[in-house]
Design goal:
Its main location: cytoplasm. Belongs to the WD repeat ARPC1 family. One of its GO terms (cellular component) is Arp2/3 protein complex. It is found in: Cytoplasm, Cytoskeleton. The chain contains three helices and 28 strands. With about 375 residues, the chain is mainly β. The chain has a domain of about 270 residues: YVTN repeat-like/Quinoprotein amine dehydrogenase (Methylamine Dehydrogenase, Chain H, 7 Propeller), CATH 2.130.10.10. Helix 1 packs across helix 2. The protein is globular and about 50 Å long.
Length: about 375
């Protein structure tokens, strides 16, 4: 089995993040608080802190790996950077200048900036101003036509990818003079002005959600609400794009395990594996925990019943049973939508062998792919 540990912390979890040494986890139990737990033994978790500063649901959390700072954003339109001082987490308010909810947040690879996506069609790039001892935000405006649902930093610390409910994925330059340094190896992106749009992808005809870069930054992956996942190589003036359709419920987030393998999570409540062959063609491989990819008519019928049940309720006992059996056959770790997936490895690592997922069922699951290499295929690693 790929699952190492599963623990139910709350009725529902909106987002989660791990401490640099992976000994503590911070999550929002679908309210205005952030709970921090530490593993006291193999199966026991102890709550150490409750961060209470936001007024509404915390929609995004990220824990920096080097500076040990936590950044949170909320539907209350605010962001806080939390620093551990004397055993207590001390918040510093970040003025985002938003008139709608903040929806997602992520530290940049060098941790000198973080990006916030919002319902105000705006992305905030926040950085620390040493002279005034506060966090400042610069806004990328008038580019998105709807809510920004996800942000992802390129390894070069300059490019930022975003997804939006207008169905588009965009890539921007976030170069800030005095904060970033020009790197000759980075090429033209470092010469771009702040907020300049490098690329706009119109592959999806529905809401677009999670987006991630591959470890090298050569490939971009994002997902749409139409049960499709999109892969883009050679991000720039002439990108190479692929789309992979699958017949199950839509995904919400993605994670690159390696340059050739991606894990997708979402409404189907079971992680999905996508991989590229030697020619660079991406395809759906299987669910984690499933012996082989579901392709038979009977299996598809069961999957359709499960999807129907989740959308319209368990109106028929036979439909509910079919959905339950189908979920169990594919792993059944989560009981509801998985809304986030987080790597359990050092930033910039070429391979991710462990990751965690959290969902609306209140569970956080830790997955280990070490013992699944033979099943998934060594060539993808």
């Amino acid at each position: 089995m790929a699952v190492v540990d599963v623990h139910r912390f709350a009725e529902s979890i909106t987002c989660h993040a791990w401490s640099p040494d992976l000994s503590m986890v911070a999550f929002c139990p679908n309210n205005n608080e952030v709970h921090i737990y530490k593993s006291s033994s193999q199966d026991q978790w102890e709550r150490l802190h409750v961060l209470e500063k936001h007024d509404q649901i915390v929609s995004g959390i990220d824990w920096s790996s080097n500076s040990n700072k936590i950044v949170t954003v909320s539907h209350d339109r605010n962001s806080y950077v939390w620093s551990l001082e004397g055993g207590e987490w001390v918040p510093t308010l970040v003025i985002l200048r938003l008139n709608r909810a903040a929806l997602c947040v992520q530290w940049s690879p060098k941790e000198n900036k973080f990006a916030v996506g919002s319902g105000a069609k705006t992305v905030c790039i926040c950085y620390y101003e040493q002279e005034n001892n506060w966090w400042v935000s610069k806004l990328i405006r008038k580019r998105h036509e709807s809510s920004v649902t996800s942000v992802a930093w390129h390894p070069n610390n300059i490019l930022l990818a975003t997804t939006c409910t207008d169905g588009k994925c965009r890539v921007f330059s976030t170069f800030i003079k005095g904060v970033d340094t020009k790197d000759p190896k980075a090429g033209s992106p470092a010469e771009s002005k702040f907020g300049e749009q490098i690329l706009q992808l119109d592959l999806s005809y529905s809401w677009a959600f999670g987006v991630k870069w591959s470890p090298s930054g050569n490939t971009l992956a994002y997902v749409g609400h139409s049960s499709m996942i999109y892969f883009v190589d050679d991000v720039g003036p002439s990108p190479l794009a692929q789309s992979v359709a699958f017949r199950d419920l839509p995904l919400r987030d993605v994670l690159f395990i390696s340059e050739k393998m991606v894990i997708g999570v979402g409404y189907d409540s079971n992680p999905m594996v996508f991989a590229a062959d030697d020619t660079g063609i991406w395809s759906f491989i299987r669910y984690i925990g499933e012996k082989k990819a579901a392709s038979s008519g009977a299996s598809y019928s069961s999957q359709f019943s499960e999807a129907f049940t989740k959308f319209y309720g368990q109106s028929k006992a036979t439909t509910a049973n079919e959905a339950s059996e189908s979920s169990k056959s594919r792993g059944g770790v989560h009981d509801n939508c998985i809304n986030s997936i987080v790597p359990l490895s050092k930033a910039g690592s070429p391979k991710v062998m462990r990751f965690s997922t959290s969902g609306l069922d209140g569970k956080i699951a830790i997955w280990d792919l070490e013992n699944m290499q033979e099943e998934l295929g060594h060539q993808f690693y």
